[in-house]
Each structure stands twice: as structure tokens, then as C-alpha cells.
Amino acid sequence: MIGCGETGGIDLCEGVVCDDGNECTLDSCIPADGTCDNGAVPDGTACSDGACLDRTCTVLTTMSGTVTVQESLDADSPAVGATVSVHRMRV
Length: 91
Hints:
Blueprint: E1 25-30, E2 35-40, E3 46-47, E4 50-53, E5 56-59, E6 61-72, E7 79-90
Antiparallel strand pairs: 1-2, 3-4, 4-5, 6-7
């Protein structure tokens, strides 16, 4: 007698092709019922055009720049400066 969730030794994923052709999904067969799961890879995962974003390979361009911040503690002290590198990604 086969219990709930048991397949009696039958491989329900045998011969099942789950590849959806999307490099931004993880394709696998669910052994319990032989259906496919095409879950998303984590956003930011590298792909052929840039990075995956919500299951889509998205072209990303980067822009770099430098921002200089100066702040005076009080009128008698010299200015304190900091340089910060800014990197933004455009989607």
C-alpha cells in the first residue's frame, strides 16, 4: 500500500524537462508530483546581459563619481573633509 506522498519507487521526474530557457530562474522537478518549479534566482545574480532582476536578465550600466564633503566643527577649527565614492546602477 502506498502512503500519502509516496510514489512506490516510481521516479515522477524521469524524462521531465524543466528548463524554461530563462537564465534568471532555477529550474527543477518536484519529485512528489513530477511538476516543474522555475523559481527566481536572487536579484543581482549575473546573467548574459547584466544582472537578474525579478526573473529578467537586465542590462545594467554603472556610473561612478566622487563627492567631497566638508564640514566645519566650529568657527575656530579647520574644516574636516571626507571623500566618498558614489556608484549607482541604472536599470
